[in-house]
Amino acid sequence: MLAFSLVAIAAPALAQAPGRGNADLQTNCAGDALQFCAGIDPNSPQMDACFKKNMSRMSPNCRRAIDAYEKAGGK
């Protein structure tokens, strides 16, 4: 579930899949997505893998947003 929810943080993903993620993920993780996963299709399994691989390097605000998103059941 974590990997699926992380895909939603990049701006292009919002245009393609508006129901994915939430505003907190977008606000707090967009920079991390660009820094660690630039050039990867946000709707791909590769984006999920990139976030998992780089989770320890993500900003504290992004990690908090991911934790809150998961605790809310992905909403």
Total strand segments: 0
User: Helix segment count?
Assistant: 5
Percent of sequence in beta strands: under 5%
What's the order of the H and E elements?
Answer: HHHHH
Question: How many discrete structural domains?
Answer: 1
Describe the largest sheet.
none
Q: Tell me the overall shape.
A: globular
What would the average pLDDT be, to the nearest integer?
Answer: 76
Low-confidence stretches: 7-19
- Give Rg in angstroms: 11 Å
Relative helix content: 55-70%
Q: Find the structural class using helix and strand composition.
A: mainly alpha
Distance between the termini: 11 Å
Could you give a quick summary of the protein structure above?
This protein is 64% helix and 0% strand. The protein has 5 helices and no strands.
Map the helices and strands:
Blueprint: H1 2-6, H2 11-16, H3 23-37, H4 45-54, H5 60-71
Helix pairs in contact: 3-5
